[in-house]
Amino acid sequence: MHRKPGWQRQWTRLQQAALQELDAVVKRLPKDLRNKAHRIPVSLEPVPGKDLLDDGLEGDTLGLYVGEPYSENESGIENVPPQILLFLENIWDYAGHDTAAYREEIRITYLHELGHYLGLDEDDLFRRELD
Q: With DSSP H G I counted as helix, E B as strand and the rest as coil, what are the percentages for the chain, rounded to 5?
């Protein structure tokens, strides 16, 4: 993929803002949820990769949870290690290139995907306003 001049600088800014927002979000979680949140890695990607697109993921997807939902009795045997993927360029575009809106969307998207990790379905996420 060909990137515009200055892309690396912009990418670094998007990553830094996302990491700061994620840190703030996790710190505000109740302790039991904070402990669970610390167990799942978050990968920051510009956009979904070819493999995900080939699997049918929309190119403008903001975030994705992959892996098995959290369980109090995890066996440690999983097909895909659980992780949250955040697609920062898509979130930046969705936020209209506004820094405050970007940070808010990082928060919303992360909490939505964390909800999937915790086993919430789309109806649960809607009721909790994490859709």
A: 50, 10, 40
The rounded distance, in Å, linking the Cα atoms of 109 and 86 is 8
**Contact indicator for 128, 120 with CB cutoff of 8 Å:** yes
CATH topology of domain 8-68+79-127: Zincin-like (3.30.2010)
Query: Is the distance from CB of 88 to CB of 14 less than 8 angstroms?
Result: yes
Place of tokens 């697609």: 87
Specify the pTM. Answer: 0.85
For 10-47, how does the pLDDT look when each residue is reduced to its tens digit (9 = 90+)?
999 999 999 999 999 999 988 888 898 999 999 999 99
Strand, helix or coil for residue 120: coil
Distance of CA 63 to the CA centre of its chain: 4
